[in-house]
Specification:
The chain contains 10 helices and 12 strands. By secondary structure, it is of the alpha/beta class. The strands form 3 sheets. Strands 3-2-1-4-5-6-10 form a 7-stranded parallel β-sheet, with helices on both faces. The longest helix has 20 residues. The protein starts with a strand and ends in a 7-residue tail after the last helix. The relative contact order is 0.14. The structure holds nicotinamide-adenine-dinucleotide. The site of nicotinamide-adenine-dinucleotide has 31 residues, from helix 1, strand 2, helix 4, strand 5 and strand 7. Its EC number is 4.2.1.46. One of its GO terms (biological process) is nucleotide-sugar metabolic process.
Length: 312
């Protein structure tokens, strides 16, 4: 079974590759542009088990060459940081929309059995109460989530138009090892370790549903192997917490004072709350295994052990 994993040197992608390498069922090719967020060190310990190719998913010739003999494709490659998308949306459209289009064209051209699009709960927008199901409307708020929604809509259209064998997963906020420290949890862990301030947006009450990255990886594998073609699967951790709660937990685990917290001007278009209904993927036999508190402890431990990688 030959599987192409795009964005496999990034946070979730590399954890997924580590997970797949735990058994010998797969011949793995990783395609990654190695942007600021991608790092070959994320693949330490498994480099001899995989083939790594540096390149972009929007590169027509390269993708065509790589996909020719692949059985499955999982697309993690994306520009992923909301703040960067507000500063410079162009590269988000190029990677998250055009890149997805290029992958889909090649799935269509070759005999690829399954293409899995990795997406996000952010495509649904904000929700005051209740949870989004896979039937909910897409209502993205940022150039990041709009670009992801654009990719998702292309995936759905290729299924309806060409019967392209696609599946989409939309997960909630991931945390865990190997995440580039611009996102809240790794940034705050590393800042706190250096006694730097932890900049919390607005009033800190924005709620996210947090999922440990290994739980998401297992959910992705479940959807890939057992999911029905053409379907979307939400993968949520069931841990709704606001940013201030997370910040306080991190300070507690590192034994640092709350005086490190500073409140900064809110992000433009900042969604108030995300929440996912994951009943559909649970029917395939998946459920989250890690408790939030244990997973956060593990994550803090990992950043302590790998601290030197992230020093400026
Ligand atoms: P990340 O930013 O850590 O990694 C993205 C990877 O993609 C990097 O290795 C980068 O080098 C690579 N990449 C970027 N542009 C590329 C291109 N044009 N061609 C090839 N490679 C390219 O992201 P992540 O947090 O691991 O997210 C992976 C996927 O999961 C994304 O599609 C994201 O939208 C989705 N997602 C993330 C979260 C989260 O909380 N991190 C939640 C839900 C969904």
């Amino acid at each position: 079974m030959k599987i192409l994993i795009t964005g496999g040197a990034g946070f979730i992608g590399s954890n997924f590759v580590h997970h797949l390498c735990e058994n010998d069922d797969y011949e793995i090719v990783v395609l990654d542009k190695l942007t600021y967020a991608g790092d070959l060190e994320n693949l330490n310990g498994i480099r001899d088990k995989i083939e790594f190719v540096k390149g972009a998913i929007e590169d027509e010739e390269l993708v065509s060459h790589l996909m020719r003999d692949c059985d499955m494709v999982v697309n993690f490659a994306a520009e992923t940081h909301v703040d960067r998308s507000i500063e410079d949306p162009g590269v988000f459209v190029k990677t998250d929309v055009i890149g997805t289009y290029n992958l889909l064209e090649n799935v269509r051209k070759y005999d690829v059995e399954r293409y899995l699009q990795i997406s996000t709960d952010e495509v649904y927008g904000s929700i005051e109460s209740g949870s989004f199901t896979e039937e909910s409307n897409l209502d993205p708020s940022s150039p990041y989530s709009a670009s992801k929604a654009g990719g998702d809509l292309l995936v759905g259209a290729y299924w309806k138009t060409y019967d392209t064998p696609v599946i989409t997963t939309r997960s909630s906020n991931n945390f865990g090892p190997r995440q580039y420290p611009e996102k809240l949890i790794p940034l705050f862990i590393l800042n706190a370790m250096q006694n730097k301030s932890l900049p919390v947006y607005g009033d800190g009450k924005n709620v996210r549903d947090w999922i440990y990255v290994m739980d998401n990886c297992k959910g992705i594998e479940t959807a890939l192997l057992k999911g029905k073609l053409g379907e979307v699967y939400n993968i949520g951790g069931g841990n709704e917490k606001n940013n201030l709660e997370i910040t306080r937990l991190i300070l507690e685990l590192l034994d640092k004072p709350e005086s490190l917290i500073t409140f900064v001007e809110d992000r433009l278009g900042h969604d108030r709350r995300y929440s996912l209904d994951s009943a559909k993927v649970m029917k395939l036999g998946w459920k989250p295994e890690y408790s939030f508190e244990d997973a956060l402890k593990e994550t803090v431990k990992w950043y302590k052990e790998n601290y030197s990688r992230y020093l400026e």
